[in-house]
Design brief:
GO molecular function: RNA binding
Helix content: 25-40%
Structural class: alpha/beta
Distance between the termini: 48 Å
Number of strands: 43
Shape: extended
Pfam families: KH_NusA_1st, KH_NusA_2nd
GO biological process, one term: DNA-templated transcription termination
Largest sheet: 6 strands, mixed
Number of helices: 35
CATH architecture of the largest domain: Beta Barrel
Keywords: Cytoplasm, RNA-binding, Transcription, Transcription regulation, Transcription termination
Radius of gyration: 39 Å
InterPro entries: KH_dom-like_a/b, KH_NusA_2nd, KH_sf_prok-type, SAV_2336-like_N, TF_NusA_bacterial, TF_NusA_KH_1st
């Protein structure tokens, strides 16, 4: 009874073990009944799910239910809604089985799409093309003649008559016939056969390339057909491809599974064909599976007598044994695998005379008597699912068994979709493992058998599926689905590969809602697949608010709650006399700053085409397509760029187009093409060619602002070249006079000139101004106070202690003079600063002078100047100069000398700190006598401990070169350091008159370079970057990403996604991710850099 219940549940699709079933019975007696129970809540939740996997409540109420939409920010924390996603399924809903007594999940409407797939040859395609070069043979063509120049000249010289001499023209030496075994077991290799044919056609080695189907499974076979994997039966005899002239090369593509391979009929056919033509077999299966097929091979040494000779003329010997001991029986037929090395060895042999190579040759088939041959295809008796899976597990590899489990989760599937699942599992799972599953007998054909073979659906039996699903955990299935989704997004726009279905209310097909999705695709991929997005119900609340709304004087009011703040750009429609001046003045008057570039901006468009010049100025300043609010509805301008991916490449026009016009009435002196404004509208090839390749383009937009902006975005997408080379058109009315040359004067408003001016204005604003935030004066630390006191000491006393002399107390000999100063002397300024025309053209403090003279740290120099080491030397937090005296496996022994008393203090420097500092040179070691600058840490049980990698060490070095740090005029707010490579320093002034960069960098960068030299000691190349501090986390992040101009930033808790132009992605990330890592340390964020146009919310999720 118990087993019967479990079996009944399994037939209903609920597979439970005995323990799970007993747990369910135990819970059923203890869970509370009624609507408050967890089962009822689960049913309500699952019932609220829509066909695309989103809860219905997340899609908003309809307009009829809630009245007109308003832009009111919802209560609670803001979170941007996800984009709509579609569940891509590999099979349509099958017809219900007549004997099925349990409930069938409802079918939902769906639309069929053609997603792309991976190439079968992959990265080896180019190398395979090179391997075919030896087959480029040439022979005289008796049907074509060409001029024989030497003989013509000689004949004219002898006879004096203007006569010509002809000779047969050179033509391709070979034709090619490809015989593709097109049985069901070859479906996983259909794309391979197609790519082999295309590769041969593009190689330029053959005059004609013919492709035939090869039937090796019927009792009458082998027979040939006109089209592989077609619906017409194979009726041609194999002699149709036999060429008595020997000029046709034959290639047989097969997996060796057909009956004719096993009973010797294919071997007899190959033997006959090899007597008149060169021939080879391309085995689709990997070598490890050859033993189970009818195609087996052994290696022999082959030598040819002439190029492109029939295989029967080859000389074959054993690689080791002499011919007398082991002669070759039969006609040699090479068996190849689709790899460059194997194909190259064969082509060199065929394409050259007297060449020798070691090739795998087809082994003879075991001969059978007529009584041994089966009269019909063998059938395996029906087995229980457990026995079927156990039989498969007994011979299948681990990778094939894992792949079968993943396929069972998303079946039914066509074979190309199975390849996507296989590739999502990683490089360890290859096509051979898919062949193991396909040949295992676990799969059965389902669905419409009238479709072409490449669209056939294959599925597992229910019992088999249930067992296989228990092999892998659900999280792994989720990871595989995500990997497939990511790969589909990457492949979007390439050639379609197979048939799949997406839920869509207008679809004519139906899908089973109980089937697991193969992958999930977002709106952009759906648009690339050509699927019209279903109409979504009107939301009752506004889209997420923007950071900034930019209006013009003629724009309508900004809808309430749409943006956090508003800005007016004074751009009025009228005569555009000087576009450069007007653009700069408008941006300056609007108050746009570089910090606004990363803000989420919406442009409130005025009516009609007059919105385009002001919008172009904003887009040029931000270097991206900002959203627009036009004609009462939001417009996603960045999304309009994707439509070009459905167009593909078009040929250049035969003549150079100087000018063209898109839209409007026909114009004089230039071609005028229509232009569809609808984002889903198609463009003809003539329009695309004119818009893309015309040097100058006039656009005549419709009167609607949204239509004009859409037309601008679509035209710009067609005319964009590279990541930064925008080429915007000229806004025209269509009535301007014919243009003269390439000049845009008098042709309308040059939008590209506006964009370039706005882009230049932003770059100048970044270079010219430093938007530094002023912070309160913090308490000065005791160590910094001592350095300030040292800088204010008596210069004469310090200089005498340094051993220099003076005659008048003002002009001194320079302590750094090594005989190269000439008449340069050290001068004491009114403030306690010194200058030297040779060493210090700009006055420096006494601490800096002592640091450079005695090679001390600023803290040691202060102690020397004050002649006072303080209560404790060396004190924790102090930078000191340490000398290496010895080494243990874990640490270096060092001594630190008191700069006043000369007393030596023992210290240890952990060896791992030095290895971290020199990670790019792991074999570097400190030697006895080497000097390093280190930070004193808190004493431990081992004594005084030093650090080379602490971030505070950077500040203790900088205070000697930036005196403003010791007086509180400039403060360091944060340091992010990767020792030995890069340090980012966030700093802020305490008075508006001070500048951060001026204080830290100094004239000719002498301050920051001096600090870098002291810290590295010449052993590393660590660089310092000074960042302007801001209390606004977004602005600080923009400042910290020194090498990027962000086009969008999304921050959620401790994570941030930053979009930058495509050409800046590499520099924004930095070598080894260094730039983004340190920017994240400064801001307390985990930073991810993505190209502009990426959906930041999806990346954040």
């Amino acid at each position: 009874m118990f087993e019967r219940v479990l079996k009944a549940l399994a037939d209903c699709g609920v597979g439970l073990s005995s323990e799970e079933f007993l747990d369910a019975l135990w819970l059923a007696t203890r869970l509370p009944p009624g609507p408050a129970g967890p089962l009822a809540r689960m049913e309500r939740t699952s019932g609220a799910l829509s066909d695309d996997g989103l809860q219905a409540g997340d899609q908003g109420d309809s307009a009829d239910a809630g009245g007109p939409a308003t832009y009111a920010r919802p209560a609670g924390p803001f979170r941007r809604p996800r984009r709509g996603r579609g569940a891509l399924r590999g099979g349509a809903a099958p017809a219900p089985e007549p004997d099925r007594t349990f409930a069938v999940p409802p079918a939902a409407p769906a639309v069929s799409v053609r997603p792309p797939g991976e190439k079968a040859l992959g990265a080896a395609e180019l190398a395979l093309g090179r391997a075919l070069r030896p087959l480029r043979l040439h022979r005289p063509d008796p049907h074509r003649a060409e001029l024989d120049i030497p003989r013509t000249v000689a004949a004219m010289a002898e006879t004096g008559l203007p006569d010509i001499v002809l000779r047969p023209a050179e033509g391709h030496g070979l034709d090619l016939a490809i015989l593709v075994d097109d049985g069901v077991s070859m479906l996983p290799w259909q794309r391979l056969a197609t790519e082999v044919r295309l590769l041969m056609e593009r190689s330029g080695a053959f005059r004609f390339v013919h492709t035939f189907s090869l039937d090796t499974r019927s009792p009458e076979g082998p027979l040939l057909g006109y089209r592989p994997f077609g619906t017409a039966p194979a009726t041609l005899p194999p002699s149709a491809v036999a060429d008595p002239s020997g000029r046709t090369l034959l290639i047989v593509v097969s997996d060796g599974v057909g009956r004719a391979w096993r009973d010797g009929r294919m071997h007899d056919l190959l033997d006959r064909l090899a007597r008149v033509s060169p021939i080879a077999v391309l085995h689709t299966l990997p070598r490890r599976m050859w033993a189970g097929t009818g195609i087996r091979a052994e290696h022999w040494r082959v030598t040819t007598r002439r190029a492109a000779a029939a295989n029967a003329t080859w000389r074959v010997t054993d690689p080791v044994l002499p011919p007398d001991l082991r002669p070759f029986d039969g006609t040699p037929v090479p068996v190849l695998v689709p790899t460059p090395d194997a194909v190259a060895a064969w082509t060199r042999l065929v394409g050259s005379a007297g060449t020798s190579a070691l090739l795998p040759l087809l082994a003879p088939a075991p001969r059978r008597t007529p009584s041994d041959a089966p009269s019909a295809a063998p059938t395996r008796p029906h087995q229980e699912p457990y026995a079927e899976v156990l039989r498969f597990r007994s011979f299948a590899s681990t990778e094939a068994y894992r792949l079968a489990a993943h396929l069972a989760a998303v079946a039914p599937l066509p074979v190309p979709a199975m390849q996507l699942v296989r590739q999502a599992l990683g490089a360890s799972v290859d096509s051979g493992h898919l062949a193991e599953v396909f040949l295992s007998g676990l799969l059965r054909r389902v669905g419409d058998i009238e479709r072409p073979p490449q669209q056939w659906q294959f599925d597992f039996a229910e019992g088999t599926r249930r067992i296989l699903l228990g092999v892998i955990p659900p999280p792994e299935l989720v990871r595989t689905t995500r990997a497939i989704s990511s790969r589909l997004a990457e492949l979007s726009g390439t050639a379609p590969s197979f048939l799949a279905w997406l839920p869509h209310p207008d679809g004519q097909d139906h899908i089973d809602t109980g089937q697991r999705a193969l992958s999930w695709v977002d709106e952009r991929v759906m648009r690339r697949l050509g699927v019209p997005l279903p109409d979504a119900p009107t939301p009752a609340v506004a889209p997420p608010p923007y950071d900034l709304a930019i209006r013009t004087p003629h724009s309508p009011p900004t809808p309430p709650g749409m943006a956090a703040k508003e800005m007016l750009i004074p751009w009025a429609a009228g005569e555009e006399a000087d576009l450069k001046l007007k653009t700069a003045q408008a941006l300056r008057a609007a108050g746009l700053t570089p910090s606004d570039v990363a803000a989420k901006i919406v442009f409130i468009a005025p009516p009609g085409p007059q919105a385009l010049p002001a919008y172009t100025a904003v887009a040029g300043f931000t270097h991206r397509w900002v959203d627009a609010y036009a004609d009462g509805s939001p417009l996603d301008m960045a999304g309009l760029q994707l439509f070009t991916e459905r167009i593909g490449e078009v040929a250049r026009p035969s003549t150079f187009l100087v000018w063209a016009q898109a839209g409007g009435p026909p114009a004089d002196g230039m071609p005028t093409v229509p232009f569809a404004v609808d984002p889903d509208g198609q463009l003809d090839e003539t329009s695309v060619r004119a818009v893309r390749y015309a040097a100058r383009l006039r656009m005549v937009p419709p009167d609607s602002a949204s239509a004009a902006l859409t037309m601008l975005a679509r035209i710009a997408a067609l005319r964009t070249r590279g990541d930064t080379a925008w080429r915007l058109p000229v806004l025209s009315t269509g009535t301007e006079p014919p243009p003269a040359g390439k000049s845009t004067e008098g042709q309308g408003v040059d939008l590209e000139l506006i964009r370039q001016t706005a882009d230049r204005y932003r770059k100048e604003a970044v270079k010219g101004g430093e938007t530094t935030e002023v912070v309160p004066v913090p308490p000065v630390s005791p160590l910094n106070r001592r350095i300030a006191e040292a800088n204010a000491a008596d210069p004469a006393a310090v200089l005498r202690r340094l051993g220099v002399t003076s005659e008048d107390g003002v002009r001194w000999t320079c302590p750094l003079d090594r005989g190269d100063h000439g008449d340069a002397v050290l001068t004491v300024a009114s403030r306690p600063q010194v200058s030297c025309k040779h060493c210090y053209p700009r006055a420096v403090g006494l601490v800096r002078l002592v640091v450079d003279t005695l090679s001390l740290t600023p803290d040691e120099a202060a102690a020397f100047i004050l002649n006072d080491s303080g209560d404790r030397f060396p004190a924790p937090g102090m930078a000191v100069t340490a000398r290496v005296t010895g080494r243990t496996p874990e640490a270096y022994r060092c001594t630190v000398h008191d700069p006043v008393t000369g007393q030596a203090h023992e210290a240890i420097l952990p060896a791992h700190a030095f290895r971290e500092l020199h990670r790019d040179r792991p074999l570097s070691r400190l030697r006895k006598g080497d000097r390093v600058v280190a930070l004193v840490l808190e004493p431990s049980a081992d004594g005084l401990v030093l650090s080379l990698t602490a971030a505070d060490l950077v500040e203790r070095v900088l205070v000697g070169f930036v005196p403003e740090l010791t007086t509180g005029e400039v403060v360091i707010t944060g340091i992010a350091r990767v020792a030995g490579a890069l340090t980012k320093i966030a700093a802020a002034p305490t008075r508006p008159a001070n500048t951060v960069r001026g204080a830290f960098v100094g004239r000719d960068a002498e301050r920051i370079r001096g600090a870098q030299r002291l810290l590295s000691g010449g052993t590393t190349n660590e660089k310092f970057e000074v960042i302007a501090y801001s209390s606004d986390q977004r602005v600080l992040l923009v400042n910290a990403l020194v090498y990027a101009e962000p086009t969008g930033i999304l921050i959620d808790r401790q994570r941030a996604v930053v979009a930058v132009p495509h050409h800046q992605v590499r520099s924004a990330i930095g070598r080894g991710g260094l730039n983004a890592q340190l920017a994240g340390q400064l801001t307390g964020l985990y930073v991810k850099i993505v190209p502009a146009g990426t959906d930041l919310r999806l990346e954040l999720d």
